[in-house]
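Structure tokens please, single chain.
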Amino acid sequence: MRVMLDTNVILDSMLQRPPWHADADAVLQAASNGQVTCAATALSLATAFYVGRRIVGTDQARIGIRTYLRAFEILPVDRPTLERADALPGNDLEDNIQIAAAEAATVDGIVTRNAGDFAHSPVSVWTPGELLQRLKAGGAPPAAVAPQP
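Here you go.
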């Protein structure tokens, strides 16, 4: 199973933001164990570095980004991705870029802490906890979440 991690999940792990880092770390551990393949957009890693360097400093932020570069499939943000993002409903271009990149890469789902922000996504959306529950059960990813606005 291939999933794209939203920026908030990456930051939760990188910055060890309580209480969310436990599930984010568990998703990354599942990837390390071969249970799931994680992807992230180039946009997410750039944003994670920008936020991370302000909180933990440039050196630590670079270490985090290098770790993710080794561990993740990197999804491009190119003209077709941006054009698709612009055509999607919703008023948050960053979320639409995530959706468009996930759609183009045909990942199985988007993993985010803010499922409601992805209510219009044609790609399935799960919280880290929902993904972990399914992985523990040994099943396929859950059906698309119908986020509550």
